């Protein structure tokens, strides 16, 4: 008597969801979805969350004209995965800002701006850069035609999959631009601030608030609901960076939200990047003490954490268990975020290099990724959101 073959498509929905929720890696999740149409349909509808957060990926310019970008995964055997170029799709000039939900903000050669999820292929168009005059401190000039090197950072409220983000905030070299989708606005509002420009913007979900760091080290918040002013909470940078200012001509400030298994609430983390001749020389990490309202230096990252810095939304990442991540804890992973500026020259055949690498807080050492200069958008860290991707994986 022949043994009957198991019909995997007959598994109950609850069991499929349970299995999918216990998968630890994106590559296994993709293969799971590809077993049969029933499993694919269930995972698309239920979107079960995995046990672990996947390590961030890098989105890089594509080498082939048939593709718009390529993704680099540190975990998968075939590490480079191209994203197909859509017909009549404008060439992307800049990828600016990414979120833990897998979305990245893109600007094309016509100045159009949109949110794009390279894992699902979804897009969310943002309004044209046309601005309605709001008050005396608000500019009536739009942002259309603004060179890419004048854009600094973009942040938005989480997961625009369904109805779109509540708000999007863009920092430029001279002003702040805000679009409030929750109020059904059809325009961007821009205004000047005495603290501009802002080097980083991060959305704090627990407080439903955007925090910003000025180029001069001032911590700010922005009132999204009244659009009246930017509030300054800490007018000065930490004292510990005074020595860095003496020896370095350029400092960059990054803000990240730290959660983690050892903390009941999140906190603000400040990272100061020291740059000399367009090359990173070191980092300092601080955490905000809310009671004393001051920045306190940190010698290491709690929960064996990792910081991912660059054009993306600065992210404090940690692994909640095993899972084989090749990213090491207590490290800062950084990419080149010098938009519109040439890369540094290390006198190796006079070829410019991009300022990318890994900094260890254990011993202060660097591991450099000496990528040669490329055409197209700068590399940016992105974060898998566990929806079926549109990239070309081989099963």
UniProtKB/TrEMBL annotation:
Q: Which Pfam families match?
A: Beta-prop_KIB1-4
Query: From which domain of life does this come?
Result: Eukaryota
Looking at the record, the residues that make up the KIB1-4 beta-propeller domain are 78-360
Q: Which PANTHER family match?
A: OS07G0183000 PROTEIN-RELATED (PTHR44259)
What is the recorded name of this protein?
A: F-box protein
Where does this protein come from, organism-wise?
Acorus gramineus
């Amino acid at each position: 008597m022949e043994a009957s073959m198991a019909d995997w498509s007959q598994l109950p929905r609850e069991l499929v969801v349970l299995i999918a929720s216990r998968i630890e890696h994106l590559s296994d999740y993709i293969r799971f979805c590809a077993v049969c149409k029933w499993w694919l349909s269930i995972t698309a509808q239920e979107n079960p969350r995995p046990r672990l957060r996947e390590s961030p990926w890098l989105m890089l310019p594509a080498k082939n004209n048939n593709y718009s970008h390529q993704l680099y995964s540190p975990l998968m055997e075939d590490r480079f995965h191209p994203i197909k170029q859509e017909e009549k799709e404008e060439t992307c000039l800049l990828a600016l800002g990414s979120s833990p939900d897998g979305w990245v903000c893109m600007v094309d050669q016509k100045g159009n701006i949109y949110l794009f999820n390279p894992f699902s292929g979804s897009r969310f168009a943002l309004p044209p850069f046309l601005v309605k005059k709001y008050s005396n401190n608000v500019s009536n000039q739009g942002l259309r035609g603004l060179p890419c090197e004048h854009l600094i950072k973009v942040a938005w409220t989480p997961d625009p999959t369904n109805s779109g983000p509540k708000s999007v905030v863009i920092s430029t070299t001279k002003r702040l631009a805000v679009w409030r989708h929750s109020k059904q606005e059809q325009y961007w509002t821009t205004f000047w601030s005495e603290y501009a420009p802002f080097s980083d913007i991060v959305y704090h979900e627990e407080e439903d608030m955007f925090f910003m760091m000025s180029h001069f080290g001032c911590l700010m918040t922005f009132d999204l609901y009244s659009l009246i002013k930017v509030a300054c909470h800490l007018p000065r940078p930490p004292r510990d960076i005074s020595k860095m200012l003496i020896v370095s001509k350029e400092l960059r400030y990054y803000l990240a939200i730290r959660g983690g298994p050892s903390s009941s609430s999140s906190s603000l983390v400040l990272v100061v990047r020291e740059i000399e001749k367009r090359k990173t020389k070191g980092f300092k990490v601080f955490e905000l003490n809310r009671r004393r309202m001051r920045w306190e230096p940190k010698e290491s990252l709690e929960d064996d954490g990792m910081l991912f810095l660059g054009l993306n939304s600065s992210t404090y990442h940690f692994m909640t268990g095993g899972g084989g991540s090749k990213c090491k804890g207590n490290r800062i992973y950084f990419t080149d975020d010098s938009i519109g500026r040439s890369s540094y020259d290390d006198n190796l055949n006079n070829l410019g290099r991009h300022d990318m690498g890994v900094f260890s807080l254990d011993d202060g050492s660097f591991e450099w990724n000496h990528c040669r200069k490329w055409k197209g958008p700068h590399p940016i860290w992105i974060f898998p959101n566990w929806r079926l991707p549109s990239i070309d994986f081989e099963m």
